[in-house]
Amino acid sequence: MTTSIFKPLECRPDNYQSWYQQGNQLRLQGHLEEALFSYEKALEYYPEDYWAWYKRGMTLEQLERYEEASDSYEKASTMNPNNYWAWYDQGCIALEELKDYPTAINCFNHALAVYPQDYWATYRKGEAFRLLGDNDNALACYTESLFIRPNDYWSLYRQGDVFASWGNLEEALSRYSQALAIKPHDYWALYRQGEILQQLNCFEEAIHHYQQVLAIEPDDEYALFHQSVCLAILGRDEAAIDNLTLLVQDYPKTYSEAINTRPEFYRVRSHPRMQKVLLSAENLDT
Hints:
Order of helices and strands: HHHHHHHHHHHHHHHH
Number of strands: 0
Helix content: over 70%
Strand content: under 5%
Structural class: mainly alpha
């Protein structure tokens, strides 16, 4: 364990630089509460200092005090509007922690005004638009981020999400395929591609993709369930029952209801093996 260097009595009470430097050392050592105290003491004597407000924001963010961190970054960006990092970090907090997507977009726009070719601000602005439901602007941001960083997995993956939301399944499938060319064993792109193939009635291919997902995450209930649907549609009832038995054992109420109501399982649910599993689940529920 690192020993704290926090010795406030050794700081001259009115010495801004002493408090600020001590805050930096404490933050790097991981003594965040003490670092925060030091930055705030520095700001008592020099409240116009951009860097102290920015470092205070970093410390508060590490302490997961996100609203206060955002306020500190905002103060820093007001004092120094041309500093990329204050805008970008404020945007990330708005996007990921506070779920304030309009503020995130505004912050990333300011960051990009300083550094127009920045991939991360461009991509994350796309994320803010997507989460707002503005898929047109989201797609534009993802496309721009691919000009900056060609063959970027996440931009391609998110483009796939946008096209899927529009019902443009072929384009979505193409984007997920491009993403998988970059990260061949990625769970999310494989799963999403399986969903698209299932919607396109390409059931054998969907089953193959769900199997790849299950090789990565063997306990993934959604991949196992959707694979069961495809198997049942193709008349591969025994394999479907094998999957559904596992699901009913782990989630008896949820998947018993699905088996009894989904039209794809009209044959499967009357099978003696499945009836036995469903009866067992019913007894557990009572």
